[in-house]
Amino acid sequence: MGAVKARPWLKLTPHFIEGELACRCCGRLLVQTELLQKLEYLRCLAGAPVLVNSGYRCPVHIGAVGGATNSYHLKGMAADIRVPGLAVESLAALAEQAGFDNIGLYQQHGFIHVDVRGYRARWDG
Ligand SMILES: [Zn+2]
């Protein structure tokens, strides 16, 4: 499952385009359908734009940010997201409702990490 160059403006779902989820360093993209479905559902629950700080990260980018080599970002299964004006706890509650298994709260940075790893987990970043 290799990442391919994203076509930045192509719609992945009604509310998300490839450029939003592509790697910030190289513009390549790998994204799992389950992640997209849950992000779109979350967008509908929030009733407001869900901004993606980070979606797919290529191996080079993972290295640059000091991320784990088994990161779910590398597998196209994770995103760091925020909704302006919505508290981190509230966003996390909506993410749970949207079906995300794993939710990490980055209170000080105002975003949450969500992924679809297949088992439930909660943590503070
Ligand atoms: Zn990259």
TrEMBL record:
Signal peptide: none annotated. Pfam families: Peptidase_M15_3. It comes from the Bacteria. Residues 20-115 form the Peptidase M15A C-terminal domain. InterPro entries: Peptidase_M15A_C (IPR013230), Zn_M74/Hedgehog-like (IPR009045). This is Peptidase M15. It comes from Desulforamulus profundi.
